[in-house]
Amino acid sequence: MDQPTAPVPPPGCPAHQAGGRVPLYGPEFAADPQAYYTYLRHYGPTAPVEITPGVEATLVTDYAAALQLLQDSGSFRKDARRWRDLNEGRISPDSAALPLLSYRPACMFTDGAEHLRLRQSVTESMARIDQLRLSKSVERISDFLISQFNERGSADLIGSYAKQLPLLVFNELFGCTADIGDRVFFGVSGMFDGVNADRAIGVLFQAVGELVALKRRKPGDDVTSWLLQHHTALTDEEMLHQVSLLLGAGAEALVNLIGNTLHRLLTDDRYAHEGGLIDEAMDDTLWENPPMTNYAAHYPVSDMAFADQKLIAGDLMLVSFAAANTGPALSAAREAGSNRAHLAWGAGPHACPSKEPARQIAVSAIENLLNRLPDVELSVPEESLTWRPGAFSRGLVTLPARFTPVKPVGRPRQNTTQAASAPGSAGAARQDQAGVWSKFLTWLTK
Ligand code: HEM
């Protein structure tokens, strides 16, 4: 490929001064990541980047090279204990990248037989989710969230809807009691808000630990119990990290899938409020504005040449799903109608194991919102919308919308969650201190 002699950083890019690695964080990156990807492509299939202050990585931006890395588990491993910069003390212990990159005994951070075992427990437990039950759960939770703002005629569809729905659905799927569910909600939200992330992670681990202990004593019809019953016989420590991974990775990606698809539906006339076009808007989102943008951390097993680059064993490699999806190599596949070619769900042995339920949750959430509020529209100029800074994922800060106020949505006649009748349920929770999950359980039983 052509190698321009002097790539020009996008306006405002600190690489103008740094002359070295391109920082993938901060307001300039968040405002126009595609300008950065265009610039990074000038380096060739991979480029030198800084993903958070002080954390350097080689970013794969080219589709063919990305696929090669994701599928070559002999040369590239996921176990972060191979990360050279971390092992050699170059990563600050309070780096914001660590919660997403450091090793844990969960499928995302393991290789070979250990990975197969941990992943099998996830895929087979997630496969037990009943689609109809999941749709009903999403609809119920969506109705609850809409009931909090439907008479106002306006709402922030990120803060009041997209950000809350996935975690409430997970609380139900994983069989959380009111008290545990409130802390799971607080923990996962706090982890990704980046404010006091350490405390949030502590709260999440404590709550998940209690959930695992509860389900060992008293199994239910939920993902936590299915994981525990799986023949791979996960230890309590593995359960803690697997469940926390599912909740964390799933919620953040789903918030952005719902938010980015809603953004597209509300800002692009092509989709203008026709319910039938939700699938199309979601596919276009997965191609052009994927929820996970630069992730899939891998480490070369040995010093090697890869895509015109010399790599050293233990280098942090990240895949830019966002750049690979929008690069020139993929345009032809996309025009030929291949909707499956994009990398928004990853690829290879670590590709997302929850693609089907994730998509179902996101489509049902959007469908129900548009059914309940058929004339919903953006209430601010599109140019005023801002995106959260950060290299790993892409999501809006807010999505202010207006609509004709409607009457409260009817509640389901009976309480269908087993969690609502579990110990520590909403009945016992003090309303003044109750979290969103408790409020939902109370709403169900009113
Ligand atoms: C129900 C919601 C979800 C759950 C529970 C979930 C869970 C997971 C898990 C456990 C992995 C690691 C698999 C492994 O290492 O073998 C994973 C990988 C991945 N997921 Fe999901 N996910 C969800 C939704 C999403 C969504 C909405 C997206 C974006 C469209 C997404 C994109 C990815 C990607 C790109 C990877 C590969 C990451 C890597 O290679 O390191 N996921 N997911």
Short descriptors:
globular; 446 residues; Cytochrome p450; binds protoporphyrin IX containing FE; alpha+beta; 6-stranded mixed β-sheet
Sum this structure up briefly.
The protein has 446 residues and is α+β, with helices and mostly antiparallel strands.
By CATH, the topology is Cytochrome p450
Task: Please state how the strands of the largest beta sheet are arranged side by side.
Answer: 1-2-3-9-6-4
The whole-angstrom Rg is: 22 Å
Strand content: 5-15%
**Share of residues in helices:** 40-55%
Domain module count: 1
Secondary structure: number of strands = 11
Structure report:
By secondary structure, the protein is of the alpha+beta class. It has one domain (15-445): Cytochrome P450 (Cytochrome p450, Orthogonal Bundle), CATH 1.10.630.10. 47% of the residues lie in helices and 9% in strands. The protein is built from 19 helices and eleven strands. It has a six-stranded mixed β-sheet. Strand 7 and strand 8 (309-311) form a beta hairpin. The model is unreliable at 1-6 and 414-433 (pLDDT under 50). Bound molecules: protoporphyrin IX containing FE. Residues 107-108, 119, 122, 245-246, 249-250, 253-254, 257, 286, 290-292, 295-296, 321, 344-346, 350-354, 357-358 line the site of protoporphyrin IX containing FE (HEM). Residues 107-108, 119, 122, 245-246, 249-250, 253-254, 257, 286, 290-292, 295-296, 321, 344-346, 350-354, 357-358 line the site of protoporphyrin IX containing FE.
